[in-house]
């Protein structure tokens, strides 16, 4: 593993004078822009994702960045984003961001862990029924003027087994709805999870694959989930079973899935996510699954409902504003989580520093040398960084902030006045 990349030090304190700028990509719901604008942000909205080079260019002078799943945020985009305070991923997945580099550059990443959970679960339930009743085939035939009234290969879902891989927020919500339809629910997770309703844990992935009529994936994109459904795992599924993937495109070997559908080992599939996805709605798209029978292909819309998007917009904008206005990092996925009430009559200094011995001593020496009184001091650390929140008398806060920003260990410092 390569060593963490820190920005060059010492840095300068980020100005507490506006104007503050927010860049919102990928058609983030207007509710987010409205909330940021109401707090004085100049909000720039872009309907598509940006490529890393263009992102790096557009991030200059930007304080808050909002993305969804299509914008990759690599180290190169963060290196020159000197004013960038935080990133909001207006979705659940955060694998598109180089979380370690964001951490070492003092940039917390916030997401919306539950706002589209229900939308994904409802879509998957719909797909289970659509696949087992071959509704797309029948519909296409009638659209084409054919009347093929058949029952062969068409089944009720009642009494069938739904195998859920990844029994987290989405997987467990899905299990509850599936049981209401009379399905038997089996799940496999690497963590021990509380089974909801009558759901049963499978001891191994193989056990789940061999026992399920429908297998649905709800795991994050991780090195350990990369291609976890390859040719071998697909072969372990029951003949005629259906595979559903609304998690991440890296989790299923699409070519192996296409082969299993062509050979009729699998009876159908529904796929919402792909190893490579277009950056905007105007781009074309090609996958080996196109044209195969009983295959539902959707353009990564599992979480795309008006309810979910409005809720995500508000949730992530709220997190970004709480971080901007009070330094609250609760919920950040890559950052020490701290939060403390603002103390009237004081100024708050927020400092991110390299987590090496002696930093707090150096900071407290600066405070002591300037004869400042500390009203509150909260520190939390992780392997790479320390995140310090400190409330001081107003008359000394600016020189303290500037002196801290000048330390060799400083990553990012600002003052809330
Ligand atoms: N299609 C969409 O529009 C859409 C919408 C929302 C989320 N997602 C994707 O769905 C994923 C799951 O969302 P969630 O909110 O349920 O996440 P979650 O973190 O609540 O649940 C994920 C579960 O997967 C389990 N897991 C991790 N590695 C595993 C492995 N190797 N085998 C089995 N289980 C494993 C975890 O222990 C956890 O319980 C997200 O990470 C995101 O990538 C897609
Ligand atoms: O809205 C998106 O782009 C991503 C939705 C989904 O994959 C998520 O991670 O929440």
From TrEMBL:
CDD domains noted in UniProt: ACT_3PGDH, PGDH_3
Catalysed reactions, semicolon-separated: (2R)-3-phosphoglycerate + NAD(+) = 3-phosphooxypyruvate + NADH + H(+); (R)-2-hydroxyglutarate + NAD(+) = 2-oxoglutarate + NADH + H(+)
EC assignment: 1.1.1.399, 1.1.1.95
The keyword Oxidoreductase is assigned to this record: yes
Gene3D superfamilies: 3.30.70.260, NAD(P)-binding Rossmann-like Domain (3.40.50.720)
A GO molecular-function descriptor: NAD binding
Homology family: Belongs to the D-isomer specific 2-hydroxyacid dehydrogenase family.
Full protein name: D-3-phosphoglycerate dehydrogenase
Lineage: Bacteria, Pseudomonadati, Myxococcota, Myxococcia, Myxococcales
